[in-house]
Amino acid sequence: MGLYDLSKHKRADRVEEINQYIAQNLAAGVNDDIIRYFADEDTYIRKAAYQTIGRLFKADYKLQSAIIAELRKLLVSESDHVRQTTINAAG
Length: 91
Hints:
The chain is mostly helical. It has five helices and no strands.
């Protein structure tokens, strides 16, 4: 189900869930959820994911090197969605 198929309240909950999973992945040094959100068919899910990366980069300098390293890995993905979302996150 697409992000904008949800009610406004459920959309906000879904975006918060995306934020939490991505932050947890970066802190733990894994990328399972990051790849899942970056590869999603829904443009708005991918947008929420790359905006989360940007906010975390600005908010927590301790995560900056982990974010850059992760984006470098994702940039060579076979998935078009993952590569494009990675570029958007780096922008």
